[in-house]
Here is the input.
Amino acid sequence: MACSRKPNCHHPSRGFHFKQNSSCSVIAQNIDSIKQRIREICAGCGRNPDEIRLVAVTKTHPEDKILEARQAGLSEFGENRVQELVPKMDRLPSDIVWHMVGTVQTNKIKDMVHRVDWIHSISKIKYLRELEKRASRIDRLIRVLIQVNISDEDQKSGCNVRELPAILEYAADLKHVSVHGLMGMASFTDDRDLVRRQFTALRQYRDEHLSYETDNVQLRELSMGMSGDYDIAIEEGATIIRLGSTIFGTRSSDQ
Ligand SMILES: *Cc1c(COP(=O)(O)O)cnc(C)c1O
Here is the structure.
């Protein structure tokens, strides 16, 4: 059924088979405004919007919302807990690209390795080792980002930048895990200058480690920026932004 919400709705999902009330849904509108905003931010800093990949972080949100976002054109989704990621990955359509964005534990790697496409939060060699072991058994290739602590807050995970060389050197020889860049989370603060300095730092860490690039270790991607700070992240060079609440609304656990 065509979008009937507004006579002038040009949403790309127009005409798809929606239930009546999800046609041109709030989620589809949010995605449209975010894409428009990304184009504006890119225009303001001379970047090509095609360089920015949007990962929709779906934690706490039910599968019908994910399908709505997919219907509205998104194809990459992320979760921050393995327990929530795995059932969603296993039940939702197989063309979805899945990103694990939350803290990794060695004993959880085996639960997601059969399906996850990207892991953003690798911060230790032992996770690379376990991932290689599990992925080789089923002959899959998992793409990872190395998470670096850019906020100096102990509770935030990520390696210290001084540990990066050893991690990247270890990754060079892996066959079933490839490194594509770095991930960082800024402090939760209203101080936007501080957030900008932290994103700048991640980009500089990337630039300073380019000599560690090999066939299997590439540092092209910078996963940084969430709903509250993705504009700054794009200005500072993000290639992947991870957005939850600005697409799906506030999570009940945040209220
Ligand atoms: C929840 C989460 C996000 C998205 O957060 P929002 O502020 O809702 O956009 C991004 N990255 C990680 C690692 C998360 O856990």
Observations:
- The pocket of pyridoxal-5'-phosphate is lined by residues 57, 59, 80, 101-102, 226-228, 242-246 (CB under 6 Å).
- The domain at 26-248 is CATH 3.20.20.10 (TIM Barrel).
- The chain has one domain: 26-248.
- Strands lie at 53-57, 76-79, 97-100, 118-122, 142-147, 177-183, 217-223, 240-243.
